[in-house]
Design a protein that fits this description.
This protein is mainly alpha-helical and about 100 residues long. The protein is about 35% helix and about 5% strand. It has four helices and two strands. The chain is extended and about 70 Å long.
Amino acid sequence: MYVCSCFGITEKQVKEHADAGACTPRQIASACKAGTDCGGCVRAIQAVLGRGTCPRRELLDRKRTPGTAADTTTEAAPGTAPGIAPGIAPGVAPGIPLPDAA
């Protein structure tokens, strides 16, 4: 069955690319152009890919899960809030003076 009628890509071809390591519709598009013309087949490609055992996807899922080893490697510097670069106060743009307190 055709998944991408624009480029004549079949479900079998998408599965072959997935077996070769393509885990996302974007990676499938890089391999065979499916999904790059009208975009109507992107959901069908997602359905073919499903939530299979993709090593890259498993790594991403581990990074998103709180309490895993991958989650503890990105700690904020001491004295800063998570996601805030050291030396920059939240809500303050560099180079803009703060108003004096009355």
